[in-house]
From TrEMBL:
Keywords: Hydrolase, Membrane, Protease, Transmembrane, Transmembrane helix. The lineage of its organism: Bacteria, Bacillati, Cyanobacteriota, Cyanophyceae, Acaryochloridales. It holds the Pfam family Rce1-like. GO terms for biological process: CAAX-box protein maturation; proteolysis. InterPro entries: CAAX_protease, Rce1/LyrA-like_dom. It comes from Acaryochloris marina (strain MBIC 11017). Residues 95-183 form the CAAX prenyl protease 2/Lysostaphin resistance protein A-like domain. This is CAAX amino terminal protease family protein.
């Protein structure tokens, strides 16, 4: 049987508590892995230093990634299905204030591991950039049907990695990642308001 493009497979919904716990535990695990790699590895990591211009650059990159994602969402049905499934699972149970954690937890932990450790560990070159981006994408795979989302996340990983490499500052991809997540969460909340049963408010 072939699924219709606009037909979404059923996923077991998560509660707000489950999503928040999953984000927190995942962030701690990624930070732990980053520290382990740093401790046993023999490589120079990228620094994260505050510079206003590079923070603004990170925000701009975050807006650019979000805009590109919105275009691809409209043009690529498979990505639209895959992204909608993921966003519904993660963002739907959250309340508005939780979107801060949606930005900060993955934004910090994933960038510290993938761009701060894995990228320089493999090598601050094109091979390291490509390989770390692929690993970043593959680790966002929830099911084989989510392959199009993985492709996009890999591209995003490449952009974030290149921004770290070209500026020499991990602050840029961290700010970009946080910005992307928060904008995506806000947009999803606005365009997908909760459905209340009839007769209830």
């Amino acid at each position: 049987m072939v699924d219709r493009p606009n037909q979404q497979p059923e996923l077991e919904s998560l509660t707000r508590t489950q999503v928040l716990i999953a984000m927190g535990v995942t962030a701690l695990l990624l930070l732990f892995l980053a520290k382990v790699f740093q401790y046993f590895g023999n490589f120079a990591t990228l620094p994260m230093t505050w510079q206003s211009q590079q923070a603004v650059l990170g925000i701009g990159i975050g807006f650019g990634i979000t805009a590109a994602s919105a275009v691809i969402y409209q043009l690529w049905p498979q990505y639209r299905l895959s992204a909608s499934l993921y966003l519904q699972l993660v963002i739907q149970p959250l309340v508005w204030t939780d979107l801060i954690w949606l930005g900060l937890l993955p934004g910090l932990s994933e960038e510290l591991l993938f761009r701060g450790v894995i990228f320089p560990m493999v090598g601050l070159n094109w091979v390291g950039l490509i390989l770390s981006s692929i690993v970043f994408g593959v680790l966002h795979l929830n099911s084989p049907q989510q392959w199009s989302y993985v492709v996009w996340v890999t591209v995003v990983g490449f952009v974030l990695g290149y921004s770290a490499w070209s500026t020499g500052n991990l602050l840029v991809p961290v700010i970009a990642h946080i910005t992307t997540n928060i904008i995506t969460g806000v947009s999803w909340k606005i365009t997908h308001p909760p459905q209340h049963p009839l007769g209830k408010t």
